[in-house]
Request: fold
Amino acid sequence: MSTTPEDITIEYEEAGQILIKELDKVILSKGAWTTLLFRYQELIPETGEYGPDKYAIRRYQKVGGEYRQKSKFNISSADQAQKIVDTLSRWLGDL
Reply:
């Protein structure tokens, strides 16, 4: 378990093979509840290659000095990610 937001990762390894490779992360908020945005790739077992970039927003709660994942939202495609960016840009432009 991670004790700081900087230590939290989406990367996942099994039997020495990285199945989920973290490419980048941004800490959106810190505190007892922390929100992170990840950019990652998943290994395609059939080819041994990593697939296209994927994105996830995850919320963690600090309990007993360690962060525990409480919720997640996986952005399913680059198209969906672009729609989120476009919508937020439009909404923020209205402020």
